[in-house]
Amino acid sequence: MEKVELIHLRQDVDLPYHWAAGRYGSMMLRALRDRKVILGNRCPQCNKVYVPPRVVCGPCFVQPSEVVELSPAGILAGYSVVNYPFIDPETGQKRPVPYTYAYIKLDGCDNYLSHLVDETDPSRLYPGVRVEAVFRPDGERVGRLQDILHFRVVD
Amino acid sequence: MAQRVGIIGFGQTYHRSHRDDVNGVELINEAVRAALEDAGLTIDDIDAVVIGNMDHFEAVNYVDTWSVDGSGAWMKPLIKLTTGGTTGSTLGIAGYHHAASGLFDVVLVIGWEKNSESDTTGAIITCSDPIFDRFSFSGALPGLAVEASAYIKRYGIKEEDAARVAVRDRAHGANNPYAQLQTPVTIEEVMQSPMLSWPIKLLDICPRSDGAAAVIFAGERKARQLCSQPAWVHYTAVRHSHTYFGDVDYTRLHTLEAAVQELYHHMGIKEPLKELDVVELYQPYSFAGLKWIEAMGLCKPGESPRLIWDGVTDMGGELPFNPSGGVICTNCIGATGLLRIGEAALQVMDRAIGRQVPDVNLALATGFGGAYWSDLMLLGKKPW
Predict the structure, then answer these.
(1) Which of A133, B9, B215, B350 has the fewest CB within 10 Å, making it most exposed?
(2) pTM of the shown model
(3) ipTM of predicted assembly, 2 dp
(4) How far is A71 from chain B (nearest CA, A)?
(5) Is residue B125 part of a domain?
(6) To the nearest whole number, what is the mean pLDDT of chain B?
(7) pLDDT surpassing 80 at residue A1
(8) What is the pLDDT of residues B271-311, one digit of tens each?
């Protein structure tokens, strides 16, 4: 078959978005920013406490009524040490590796918080190990989930 | 339902990491022409078209209109569907619903993806909640690795057990001329491949593929008229669950458990290992070939390694999985679930050249995606 030139066109897209955190999300982000407190809310039907707090418990389809202040500590439920590079749509740049992506079960909460752990040696991590939140210092918290810098393993 | 439905045609492209020789519309057209030829139809025989992909991979949002020349949907009823990893299985189920309703007799269903056109992980991250999940979410691979980390700790699963699953699918893929990866691998090669996202190594995970699939569904009268052995749709089940990744219980795949229990109950299946003849499992990584067959009720939790090492799921075993090589050999994401359905249909129609399981009466195809969602379609030799 005759070899023909095949053409690709590259385009880097800079497309800004403004996402509304909503009433419950804003409540949680304000508490993180102003008080270094992680908030959840409890479903009155199944009694589960959720983080982030939300307008409805999906399985029950009932509005959680009670806002709960959660512990900044808990256990690592699942994790992965990420070693491969990819473009982070948050920044348009390659996300630095390695880092540890983790699901954290905060004390008093029934689901997991997706976040990062500042430990990339798999031998020091296991499901069940205790971790706690490290907050950004005063003046650097802006009202987003990254106001928690990461979680750290509590030996 | 108004009428029973059978699959009467299936076409797929030759899947590759980069199909630079075609654009998206040309890729779609390749699968559509193959499906029409397989069914012995022309585009004039098609009453409606269902198409889908994960549109953030190519950043073309009106795929239904953009692709209309290639899909053959010109001046026909046309709908686009997209549900993440389950897109392909959603498409198949929607095609079935269109025909089963009696409103359309012959329905063309198309799934496609050109994963080479973007950073797959970067694009997939945009599926997550922008406020609470996106900054930490790391794409499909670490999301699955989290599940694996919890599973192997709980049941003492070894990385070699998972490697044996990858070895099976890569061996099967060598029989499929359409598969992207057609070279077998050994346990040692899997174990020594680079660690991408602990505990998942390069050869534990699916590739990213360019490819398309097209499946033609027909109502009973048309199916009998047009096809000597349709693959009859017996049952479908769908379970989509959560918004946030942190809401999923990673110790079990509840969606698949619930979907198969509904299907087994409806079909009167008591012993799936004996009663099913072949499974095309949407299994994007090797550890799923362990944990998810437990969710399917083929064995008790933690016991799947025995089935895998005993060859129960190999070609020639009691219940072969993924004769096509499955997702580990080909993953053009919007097509992947539909490929499972198409390959399962070929098995029922006795037309899976080079990869046919003997005497298939019942074939199960699954879909997986999103926050651990599951879809099922059961196909059979006789109408249900």
Answers:
(1) B350
(2) 0.96
(3) 0.91
(4) 16
(5) no
(6) 96
(7) no
(8) 999 999 999 999 999 999 999 999 999 999 999 999 999 99
With respect to residue A13, please indicate whether it lies within any of the assigned structural domains. Answer: no
Give the best residue of A33, A75, A114 to mutate against chain B (max B CB count within 10 A). Answer: A114
Residue B52: its H or E element: strand B48-52
B156 in reach of chain A (CB within 8 A): no
Q: Which has the closest alpha carbon to B333: B180, B164, B134?
A: B180
Q: Do A89 and B123 touch (CB under 8 A)?
A: yes
Judge whether B235 and B263 are in contact, CB under 8 Å: yes
Q: Which among B136, B199, B241 is the nearest to A101, CB-wise?
A: B136
Contact B283, B367 (CB under 8 A): no
- Show the domain range for B95: 5-119+209-226
Question: Chains A, B: CB contacts under 8 A, how many?
Answer: 122
Residues of A in contact with B154 (CB under 8 A): 127
Residues B303-358: tens digit of each pLDDT:
999 999 999 999 999 999 999 999 999 999 999 999 999 999 999 999 999 999 99
Which residue in chain A is spatially nearest to B142 when comparing CA positions? Answer: A80
For residue A11, tell me if it sits in a domain. Answer: no
Per the structure, the complete domain to which residue A76 belongs is given by: 22-153
What is the C-alpha to C-alpha distance for residues A126 and B367, in angstroms, rounded to an integer? 30
Interior angle at CA B384, CA B355 and CA B53, nearest 5: 55
Q: What is the mean pLDDT of each run of 10 residues along chain B (384 residues)?
A: 95 97 97 98 98 94 95 98 96 98 98 95 91 92 88 94 98 98 98 94 97 98 97 97 88 93 98 98 98 97 97 98 98 98 98 98 96 95 93
